[in-house]
Amino acid sequence: MSAFMPLDGFRYDEPALVLFSGGQDSTTCLGWALSRFSRVETIGFNYGQRHEAELCCRERIRSKIAADFSDWKDRLGPDHMIDMQSLSDVADCALTDHRRIEMEANGLPNTFVPGRNLLFFTFAAALAYRRGIRVLVGGMCETDFSGYPDCRDDALKSLQATLSLGMGSPFVVETPLMRLTKARTWALAEAVGGPRFVELVRCETHTCYMGDHEHLHDWGYGCGRCPACELRRRGWECWRAEDGKD
Ligand code: ZN
To answer: What is the distance in A from the centroid of ligand 1 to the CA of 163?
Structure first.
């Protein structure tokens, strides 16, 4: 048994489905879900991302969890990979082709894939419905620098209502990172899985927009220069400072 019980010391006797990309946020959400729910399945989407690095991390992270976290191993259910290549046909953005990342006139970075999270949750809900799961977990966060409208709490609350009405089945959309800074996301990883889980998140997850999985920094792999690396580094440093780790 791990010494790190769920924060509220309570485990829900029902399954959950985690939107799992292999990045820092969704991996932290996976740990959060494994510490709370009786069975946790994962779903990932291939939509022609510029870099495969993030998707390549998914299986490794799941294997490490099964090997190194004995109290989570039996709860980790199957993984579902969904091919959504057609999203890149309509998205026309810097996450799906090789364009420079920059801000656009509407105040959003050109990494924005319009409607992406709405589509992901709708596919996740359809799969969850079929598998008898009503809890959907995603790592969306309002404090993210990017301000993507489909990461906002009101958009996802509205989607929760729409999915429940449209499928005639009550869904709960859980977004444990919604109000957290990046520093607190590191703290949450430690709270649910201890230092070993922090190390897994640091070394096995991928966030860098440039797909750099060669350079290992204190805060993990990445180019160290793109906005995603910058956000991850600042979060790590703030967490270390706030929690007196250095
Ligand atoms: Zn980077």
So the answer is: 34
